[in-house]
Amino acid sequence: METAIQEEALQRYRPYPAYKDSGVEWLGEIPEHWEVKRLRSTVKSCQNGVWGDEADGLQDIACIRVADFDRVSFRVNIDDPTLRSIEPRVASARGLKQGNLLLEKSGGENQPVGAVVLYDHSIPAVCSNFVARVVLAKSFNSRFMAYLHAALYSLRVNTKHIKQSTGIQNLDSTSYLDEAVVLPSETDEQRSITSFLDRETAQIDVLVAKKQRLIELLLEQRTALITRAVTKGQDPSVPMKASGVEWLGEIPEHWDLVPSTWLFTECKKRALDGDEQLSATQKYGVIPQAEYERLEGRQVVHAFMHLDKRKHVEVDDFVMSMRSFEGGLERVRARGCVRSSYIVLRGTAEVHIGFFSYLLKSSAYIQALKATSNFIRDGQDLNFENFRLVRLPSLPISEQEVTANFLDRKTAEADSLIARVRDAITRLKELRTALISAAVTGKIDVREEVL
User: Fold this and answer.
1) How far are the Cα atoms of 23, 130, 148 from residue 67, in angstroms, in the given order?
2) Do 171 and 105 meet the contact criterion of CB atoms below 8 Å apart?
3) What is the phi-psi region of residue 379: left when phi exceeds 0, alpha when psi lies from -120 to 50, beta otherwise?
4) Angle formed by the axes of helices 397-440 and 187-232, nearest 10°
5) What are the backbone angles phi and psi of residue 381, rounded to the nearest 5°?
6) pLDDT tens for residues 235-292?
7) d(CA 249, CA 245)
8) Tell me, what's the pLDDT at 1?
9) Rounded to 5, what percent of the chain is helix, strand, coil?
């Protein structure tokens, strides 16, 4: 069944004058003068790459990896190539030439394997052992074929033709090249479709880039709004004074600067029987692991040993973890337990939880927390001393509440706008994919669109 996005792509352009049944379910009807072929008929050779040895400065050559695949433009990104030492004889036999396609043979768990990109560079290179070099038969336009493979990859992803699994996935190139596709027999028509798609996708990419930049600006404005509200207050007319600490700068005259221990106490209570295991996340705060897995659509590592050493937390406590150097302190959203290495903090009566939820995750506070340590070893967690070293502003709790309510409203407005822009980006990307699929499968006739 065609989606609304696919229908939009089809309605904008005219169909071919006449169609015939392809005999292939996913292709349906195809232009009368097009042919159904197996992918292998378009290929002169398909050969796995080579990894070689560490670069030695003697017989080094660029080695294209899956990480160099640009999955948007369907081209190789060679800005920072990996150099490997390859014997000249092997490099010559396995060398890439402009117009070769590269087929992803092995991949991880984040996305299905089998992406195809075009090598359109002139520098000497080979591809890695996780990639196959595909040399096309002479009658096929390499850029057109890159679009065709992209459409096939999108179909296989969306229909789960390649099942998602944990760990490394491997692609059988023989089976892959047995896939049925539809092709215009004339290279001029392939060239016309390619020119049309190059133009249309470039226009869409420009729009996507502008909207992505808009999101960046909105996020910057959101961050600046929060930082100003929690460090300067909302009233620009109030008298200011020097705080004496770099991360705050000037603060309202009626605010105080106090040791953090005046506002928060450390809680070391061990986990209680029946405590639910919680995950400390920058995105959602401290929430049940099951809820985090549901929100993210993936599993996380569960603890099964030493559960009695975990720490008990209550709703509206704060948790400091290793990631606090990046995202600040996280507010607890559910009763349960967290890792024993985390620091659990509980606010006093002078703390409005909503206000400090913003302050302890503000960019200014994060920088202050970073300044408490010269370096962080891998796996090292923050401790209570790091928190204690950062003095905090103290202001009337009524003002904290007003500021928290103001920020709740303003950040909700910003988040709603950002969500709408992201939805627009998703729609543009879906339109791009649908347009490619429609053009390379003959659902739309674009031959006159490039005249």
Assistant:
1) 37, 11, 21
2) yes
3) left
4) 180
5) -100, 155
6) 989 999 999 999 999 999 999 999 999 999 999 999 998 899 999 999 999 999 999 9
7) 6
8) 39
9) 40, 25, 40
